[in-house]
């Protein structure tokens, strides 16, 4: 998919571009930056992880309940209820908009959207999971991105239960001095919850690029908490891991090696 994005740039005649990706799209953006760093003006990664075991959400009662309901969802109405709780914070959903809550408005939009496109097929879901699980950024690839000279912003919702904040921080740390971490109040679709803050972070990145700000200057910005609750930090962020977590990670890595040798999911073409 990163090669597809590069081919599209070639088709459009774009020699360079500001690249921005969200979630799995951010993983694709990382790969694009690694295979063609000379084609990027800047890189913005929103709600990103490093793939593999990092794709596992935080395991707690809420997530187990959501996973159970997700697997049992057979109708657009059932799927919409799960998606809302997965994508947004409860605080955002409970906000009053006019005479009803945002949850009610979004629920109607989700049901309408899912009904018009249909539920995601099992084949599509398996393909998406396989792509995220087998995604991996090697040290060599990260070195290529970090040393390419363009600026990077890692933007993340601190309440994201799908892509955990700690993994985004770890990636940002590995991309220092080119990377700046922007932490916002919000969940996986933080760009919906905090559009102004996300847009401001993107514009700051583009403006800094146009002003030829050096990576060291970009990441040297002192830690700052804005009035909107955004935590902006360019300093290295140390992320520690407990021993028991390390054992779990080793198990996930073993599973990951098994998945790597599996054949890709075949998607059949449908003739009209």
UniProtKB/TrEMBL annotation:
All copies of domain AB hydrolase-1, residue ranges: 1-195
Domain of life (superkingdom): Eukaryota
Alphabetical list of PROSITE patterns matching this protein: PROKAR_LIPOPROTEIN
Gene3D superfamilies per record: alpha/beta hydrolase (3.40.50.1820)
InterPro entries according to UniProt: AB_hydrolase, AB_hydrolase_1, AB_hydrolase_fold
SUPFAM superfamilies (UniProt xref): alpha/beta-Hydrolases
Protein name per Swiss-Prot or TrEMBL: AB hydrolase-1 domain-containing protein
């Amino acid at each position: 998919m990163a090669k597809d994005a590069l081919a599209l740039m070639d088709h459009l005649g774009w020699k360079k571009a500001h690249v921005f990706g969200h979630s799995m799209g951010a993983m694709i953006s990382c790969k694009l930056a690694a295979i063609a760093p000379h084609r990027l003006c800047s890189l913005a990664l929103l709600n990103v992880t490093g793939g593999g075991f990092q794709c596992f959400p935080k395991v707690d009662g809420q997530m187990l309940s959501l996973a159970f309901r997700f697997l049992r969802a057979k109708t657009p109405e059932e799927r919409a209820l799960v998606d809302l709780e997965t994508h947004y914070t409860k605080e955002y959903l409970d906000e009053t908009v006019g005479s009803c809550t945002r949850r009610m408005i979004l629920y109607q939009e989700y049901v309408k959207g899912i009904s018009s496109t249909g539920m995601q097929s099992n084949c599509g879901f398996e393909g998406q999971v396989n792509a995220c699980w087998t995604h991996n950024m090697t040290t060599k690839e990260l070195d290529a991105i970090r040393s390419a000279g363009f600026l990077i912003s890692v933007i993340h919702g601190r309440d994201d239960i799908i892509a955990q904040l700690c993994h985004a921080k770890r990636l940002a740390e590995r991309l220092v001095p080119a990377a700046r971490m922007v932490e916002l109040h919000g969940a996986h679709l933080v760009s919906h919850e905090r559009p102004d803050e996300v847009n401001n972070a993107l514009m700051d990145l583009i403006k800094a690029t146009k002003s030829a700000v050096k990576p060291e200057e970009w990441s040297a910005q002192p830690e700052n908490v804005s009035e909107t609750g955004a935590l902006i930090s360019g300093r290295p962020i140390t992320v520690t891991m407990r021993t028991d977590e390390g054992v779990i990670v080793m198990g996930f890595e073993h599973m990951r090696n098994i998945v790597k040798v599996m054949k890709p999911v075949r998607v059949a073409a449908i003739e009209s």
